[in-house]
Amino acid sequence: MDVTERLSFFAALYKVDENPEKGMWMLYLTIVVLSIIVYKLGFAKKLPILKSFIIYLFLILGCTILTFLGAFLPVAEGLVVAALILIIYKIRLRQEKKQEANTN
C-alpha cells in the first residue's frame, strides 16, 4: 500500500510525503490557526492577559500532537468543519439578536 493514498487532504496538499519537514510545518501552522479560530468562535471568554497567554500556549503545544495525527487522520478537515459550523452559528445568532432588537 502506498503511503500517499493514506494521507489526509491537507497532508497531501502540503506534500508531506515528498518534503516532510516543510509539509509538517505547514500542516502544524494550519492546525494551530484553525484551532485558534475554533477556540475564539466557540469557547473564548474575556480573560486577563496572562491567563489568555497560558491558554494559547497549551493550545499551541497540544497542536503538536494533533499534527502528528493529522498526517493520516482528518484533524485539520474536522477543524475546518467546526469553524464553518461556528461561523454559521454566530451569523445566525447575530441576525436573531438584530431582529429581536428591531421588534422591540
Automatic annotation (TrEMBL):
Name the UniProt record assigns to this protein: YlaH-like protein
Membrane-spanning segments: 23-41, 53-72, 78-93
Keywords: Membrane, Transmembrane, Transmembrane helix
InterPro entries for the chain: YlaH (IPR025620)
